[in-house]
Amino acid sequence: MPSNTEITVSQLSRLVGLPNAPTIVDVRTNEDFDTDPRLLPTAERRDARSVTTWATELSSRDVVVVCQQGFKISQGVAAWLRHEGIKAETLEGGFDAWRAAGGLLTTTDKLPPRNEAGRTVWITRTRPKVDRIACPWLIRRFVDPHAVFLFVAASEVAAVAERFNAAPFDIDDTFWSHRGERCTFDVMIEEFGLNSEPLDRLATIVRAADTARLDLVPQASGFLAASLGLSRMFRDDLEQLEAGLLLYDAFYRWCRDATDETHNWPSGRTTG
């Protein structure tokens, strides 16, 4: 049984991908990290030896600290964070336990370089509908919760990307784009190593809505209708993105937890 300063793998796995997920801090040694350089979704790499210099950056966040096996390194860092008034727990069993349980691990070698604030920067065309909301949602929830998204005129994407060191996505002839019948959302799931039953199910819905193949899954028509409705509600692309994240949060929870659930208004009432 975990202590009151630990969180179990199963408990943390239920939080990953949700908007209220804790900040995950990976404090494995460089030697341990080099043996498996994948990260828990959205995890930040930090040097345990300099925790006194970066602890306050995590103020007001709920934090889970991860080292290789959940012992002295993560427990020492979490204790220091709590000393600074930060709610911090360690992952029981550490990275080894998460990996052994088949928890999602993000491959980050294709991730664009971070800016001076430690955020990845992405760029695409204005007026997003499906894929250009889906991809930011995936990045924010599973890769970089602080990622920056720029929406510019299609003719200016390449030039602005070069000027601001941003990664183009859902743009022809770029790495992060459609491949055959797969849309950019599919590509990101694959390249980040995030294949899992809930995300693969969501990817089918996104692909069907994004590529006009509404016969693939019954949810696609409603998903497309909601996406197009959102695009009509907001003139500002960033406001639309923030609103759209909730749509994807809801569909992800359905894909993860509710596909077998049905609902019907109570019937069989007698009238008199």
Automatic annotation (TrEMBL):
GO molecular function, one term: thiosulfate-cyanide sulfurtransferase activity
Superkingdom of the source species: Bacteria
InterPro entries: ChrB_C (IPR018634), Rhodanese-like_dom (IPR001763), Rhodanese-like_dom_sf (IPR036873), Thiosulf_sulfurTrfase (IPR023695)
Domain Rhodanese: 18-107
Keyword set, alphabetical order: Transferase
Pfam families named among the record's database cross-references: ChrB_C (PF09828), Rhodanese (PF00581)
GO cellular component, one term: cytoplasm
Protein name (database record): Sulfurtransferase
Lineage: Bacteria, Pseudomonadati, Pseudomonadota, Alphaproteobacteria, Hyphomicrobiales
